[in-house]
Amino acid sequence: MAQRDGMVEKHGVGRWLTHLGLIIGILIICFPIWFAFVASTVTQEDIIRPPMPLWPGPHLIENYSRALFSGVNTPVLNMLFNSTVMALGITLGKIVISILSAFAIVYFRFPGRMLCFWLIFLTLMLPVEVRIVPTYEIAARLDLLNSYPGLILPLIASATATFLFRQLFLTIPDEIAEAARIDGAGPMRFFWDHLLPMSRTNIAALFVILFIFSWNQYLWPLLITTEPEMNTIVMGIKQMFPSGDDWADWPVIMATAILAMLPPVCVVLFMQRLFVKGLVESEK
Amino acid sequence: MQKRVVFNNRTLPYLLVAPQLLVTLVFFFWPAAQAIRQSLYLPDPFGLSEQFVGLENFRFLLEDPYYRASFGTTAIFSTLVTLTSMSVALFLAVLADRVIKGSGAYRTLLIWPYAVAPAIAGVLWLFMFNPSIGVGAYYLKMLGYQWNHVLNGTEAMGLVVVASAWKQISYNFLFFLAGLQAIPKSVIEAAAIDGAAFWKRFWTIVFPLLSPTTFFLLVINVVYAFFETFAVIHTITAGGPRQDTTILVYKVFADGFVGQDLGSSAAQSVILLFLVGILTVIQFRYIERKVHY
Q: Fewer C-beta within 10 Å: chain A N or C terminus?
């Protein structure tokens, strides 16, 4: 790495300007989050009499426990639980149904195989934002409003994940399947003993990306959960704003914002390698 | 597309694709078909009966000045979001690419906002630019500028653009940095020997070599601005003031759920379906090319 820059500007003012530019960029990007954090540690009075302090105050525990245990419409702890169920449900659901269908499409020949492939492919063109009203009507007809299956099921079909697994399976040498077959292993034995272990890293990378995607869902939970007890944290935060001219409870709302971004941000920070791998692969 | 070695089983493959297919049919194709059907009907105000009206909903929509305005709003919004987030990200990526020691730390600090939900990004920026208590609004006032995005459409647009672009910088940065690091250093060193200055080298050599990444990100960012920014707009402006930040996706929601105008909302869904279709085709044609690059 150090070697490759041998010839190109190694020293001088340029180098310091580079660092300065990056640091300014990072500060600007982190600014909004710093403000949210500060707001979650001060009192409402500190906030509604601007300028707001720029350094954290002493009310962190008070604000966060008020958010977690009482909240505005429903305790944030409850919304965090709903978000966790939804995010894990969508993530695992997508992975399971995608890996199974990719397995079928790659390792079997059956009438209608190409039709299945194209039906799954076409879902790429049908994001939930485009078909919100009819999807809502169908969910209502199936009695899925205000339920976990209602939050999860409509979002678990995944063309991207299916393609990813298909791509991966196509790179696995035929000899492995051949050997398994000679050993008398059936297709499901082969799937469990060979395919699944070989897909481990890809599954992990996909898990990271899908978890962030699912946790951050907004529109669908907004439609399908009308009871505050079923709200997820990302959509529930909007419901915490009063509808009239009342003051919003800013310290609690900002504490909620911090809590809402904590799980996905931790996933990115602690699983950075998998995150980058997943991000690059899921866009191919 | 096909393995040489395949398993023979009559029922198993169908069982394996069944869950995916079932979800796809129930929650994707059935609603899409419903949208197409509803776009051709006009329900009465009580929802008791409906009347076939052919393409009347579409004709009405395309003549509706609000809908046309929404097209314009979407075009302005997505152009601004794409340009802002891509240019900031490219600038930061070029800088990070020059750093020899500690570029990993910079990368970590720049990529984590990717994980922040658009809705949360909206809430954060709403807080900073709240006309009465926001820090941003406060300092603007000190500089003699009265900020009020609740009343001023241009300011509202500016705010939703910044909030949407802010969230997307990390993603673009990551791909630009990867693209830059894939460029052979010998090419750049050759130019350096010729005495080309850094920014000259950048525009004449690096930027053209980066064009596959740029084009890919362009498509991704347009798709993002079209669809995923719904939450930013819903949290910050709810499409207002008047309809100044009502992008197409927001209008489908507003007309369908708030206005209960189902025929019009369904017709809008169908128009959006076409747009997504076009974007997907562009994306795939490009990706086909990238594979054979």
A: N
